Each structure stands twice: as structure tokens, then as C-alpha cells.
UniProtKB/TrEMBL annotation:
Gene3D superfamilies registered for this protein in UniProt: P-loop containing nucleotide triphosphate hydrolases
Family designation: Belongs to the ABC transporter superfamily.
PANTHER family in UniProt: ALIPHATIC SULFONATES IMPORT ATP-BINDING PROTEIN SSUB 2, TAURINE IMPORT ATP-BINDING PROTEIN-RELATED
Protein name: ATP-binding cassette domain-containing protein
Organism: Castellaniella ginsengisoli
Superkingdom of this protein's organism: Bacteria
GO MF, one example: ATP hydrolysis activity
A Pfam family assignment: ABC_tran
Length: 278
């Protein structure tokens, strides 16, 4: 029996419980003057459970980052619906945090001010100053940056900047973290430290996460569920459940076998080079 599980299997669909974030029949794309919209991704469905980490793998141009923006309420899908706690998600929600590949820190603000900026959420009442300061300081302490409160972004290393970006999301006490290749630009040691930090935060707060990554090993070490996107337009073509508790050993034969299978599936999912999109 294959280690992969195809999402079309009705046994998997019937076993899924109602999640804190759900996507049903989601399609992504862009309009074309005088023509039907060009579809990048279609028929995407997901039930994200509390505390679950889901990794999205797939070739470039398949719509992973665009999908994450839709799940965050930053972009509207062509078709389908996103629900947060059973209610339609029609825009950004304060309990969904987003961490980009670029930390996106404002250069004229200190680290503490950048983290506090994440609390200035439109259509939400401003927190009292004492609670606001407590939230910010607690989030900064969680990522180990209390010593750098007054530093500016150009005084931070790459790893520190990404920790600050994570703290900015944590200050909002999100139920869900959406992460778009947040560790890809870091050196190997710093990346490993950030991966461990993510697992600790997810476990401590029982926060769910969806992680876009090109790194199969990262997906295997972090995710409870791995989804592979492929095709034109893209769709979910496979699912893997590592079925190992954290922390995981990358030399585990089970994970090694999964890695080989996912790599073969990923190679098969790659479109011709001439068709690659951004």
C-alpha cells in the first residue's frame, strides 16, 4: 500500500471533523478582459483542526502563496468559500496571523513598536495601553528577543527579524498562523531554531498553522499533514500523514520513505518549464 493518501478517497473526507478553518471548493485565478478568468488553482478543500500543522508543497506557480492569502482573507477566491469557526471569512480576521518570507518590519520603528503595530487591526477596538504593552512584551519574550526591544530592523540579524515578525502575529493571540516560506532565507542553524520555536508555540497555545514550503524535510519535521499541489490548474493531488510525535528524527526510516515518495510525486507534478508562473 502506498504511503500517500489521495484526497479524493471518500474514507478520508468522511473522517474529517469540522475544523476551525475550512475551505470548500476554492478556486483561484485572475480576470482576463473579454475572456473567462484564468484559473491557477481549483477544487481546493480543507478542514484545519485546532493545533494541527498542515504543510503545502508544490512546484512554483501552482498557487500556494495565493492560496495562503485567500485563507487569510487578504484576497477573494474566484469560487468556493472560506469559513472561520463556521462563519464566512470575507476579510482579514484578528485571530489569524500571517508571517511572510520577508519579515516586513517598518524601518523607522523599533522592534517593540513593530510588534505593537500588529495590534492596530482595522475594525477592532484599540486595546488599553497597559494590556497592549503586556501583549507586546509577552510575545517578544516568547520568541527570545526581550534584550532587543529598542533595536531597529537594520540592527537585527535575519533570524531576529523573522522572530520579530512571528512575535507581531503572536501579540494578536491568533488561533491560526499562516506562514509563507518564513524560514527559507535563513541559514541552516537559524532555520532549525525557528522550526523548533514554531513547534513550541503551536503546542503551548494549541494554535493551528498552515505552512507553505518548498522544503520536503521541513514539511516532514513540522507537519501533521502534508498536502501536495500540482497540475494546471493546480489542485491537491496527494496527502501524507507523517504519524510521528515531535520532536522528529529526520533519520527515521518512516520519514525517509515518505521523503522519497513525496519527492517522486513532486517531480511528477512539475509543469513544463515554459509554463512556470510566479
Amino acid at each position: 500500500m502506498s504511503l500517500a493518501t489521495v484526497l479524493a478517497d471518500p474514507a478520508i473526507e468522511s473522517a474529517a471533523e469540522s475544523g476551525i478553518l475550512s475551505a470548500a471548493g476554492v478556486a483561484l485565478g485572475y480576470a482576463q478582459p473579454g475572456a473567462v478568468p484564468h484559473r491557477i488553482l481549483q477544487d481546493f478543500s480543507l478542514e484545519l483542526q485546532a493545533g494541527e500543522i498542515v504543510a503545502l508543497l508544490g512546484p512554483s506557480g501552482v498557487g500556494k502563496s495565493s492560496l495562503l492569502r485567500v485563507l487569510a482573507g487578504l484576497q477573494q477566491p474566484l469560487d468556493g468559500q472560506i469559513r472561520l469557526r463556521g462563519r464566512p471569512l470575507n476579510g482579514p480576521a484578528p485571530d489569524v496571523g500571517f508571517v511572510f518570507q520577508d519579515p516586513c518590519l517598518l524601518p523607522w520603528l523599533t522592534l517593540e513598536e513593530n510588534v505593537a503595530f500588529g495590534l492596530d487591526f482595522r475594525h477592532q477596538p484599540r486595546l488599553e495601553d497597559a494590556l497592549r504593552r503586556q501583549r507586546v512584551r509577552q510575545a517578544i519574550a516568547e520568541v527570545g528577543l526581550t534584550h532587543a526591544l529598542t533595536r531597529y530592523p537594520d540592527e537585527l540579524s535575519g533570524g531576529m527579524a523573522q522572530r520579530a515578525a512571528l512575535a507581531r502575529s503572536l501579540a494578536r493571540a491568533p488561533e491560526i498562523l499562516l506562514l509563507d516560506e518564513p524560514f527559507s532565507a535563513l541559514d541552516e542553524v537559524t532555520r532549525s531554531e525557528m522550526q523548533t520555536l514554531l513547534l513550541e508555540i503551536s503546542a503551548r497555545h494549541h494554535a493551528a498553522a498552515i505552512l507553505v514550503t518548498h522544503d520536503i524535510d521541513e514539511a516532514l519535521l513540522l507537519a501533521d499533514r502534508i498536502l501536495l499541489l500540482g497540475g494546471q490548474p493546480g489542485r491537491v493531488i496527494g496527502q501524507w500523514l507523517p504519524d510521528r510525535s515531535h520532536p522528529r528524527d529526520e533519520t527515521d526510516p518512516h520519514l525517509t520513505a515518505l521523503r522519497v515518495e513525496i519527492l517522486h510525486a513532486l517531480r511528477a507534478a512539475r509543469p513544463p518549464k515554459s509554463n512556470l508562473a510566479t
